Amino acid sequence: MRKILLAFIILPSVSSAVWAKPLDFGLGFVVGDTIGGTGKLWIDKYSAVDVAVGQGTAQGNFVFYADYLYHGWKAFPQPKSGRLAAYVGGGPRVESIANDTEVGVRAVAGAGYWLNKSPFEFFAELGPMFRMKPPGGVY
Fold first, then answer.
1. Is the dihedral of CA 98, 99, 101, 102 positive or negative?
2. Exposed e or buried b for every residue in 57-88, given b needs 16+ CB within 10 A?
């Protein structure tokens, strides 16, 4: 399992980090397909809302998305230090590309690791967008 997780984290287009702690609010940065700021608001011990605003790396476009995330704390064996959770979710994504706006739905799957006795969370996720207008498609 560790080999799979390491391969997942080192992919440059999906790695991210945010300052947060469970049952609280955190601000941080996201690096990958979107480069910008992110915020995460915990609703309860399992649910959170994640919002990001930034610039897409492929075409220098503006990106905004908001996702509802559900965390599974028993999905992975817990490390000796810190906490590890898998999460899934989704939400809307808006992208402006050269005087055009694309609206879609993002489906998200990822893993988050919280450092022991620290407010930092590091996460890696995959979040393809399903475009809602012609020509449609997923990217």
1. negative
2. eeeebebebbbebebeeeebeeeeeebebbbb
Q: Do residues 65 and 92 make contact, with C-beta atoms less than 8 angstroms apart?
A: yes
DSSP designation for 76: S
Per-residue pLDDT band at 30 (split at 50, 70, 90) = confident
Q: Max alpha carbon distance in the chain (Å)?
A: 50
Q: 88 with 70: CB under 8 angstroms?
A: yes
What's the pTM value of the predicted model, to 2 decimals? 0.76
Q: What is the pLDDT of residues 42-85, one digit of tens each?
A: 888 889 999 999 988 666 689 999 999 999 988 999 899 888 99
State how beta strands 34-42 and 129-131 pair: unpaired
Residue with tokens 């690096």: 31
- Give the other-Cβ count within 10 Å of 125's Cβ: 22
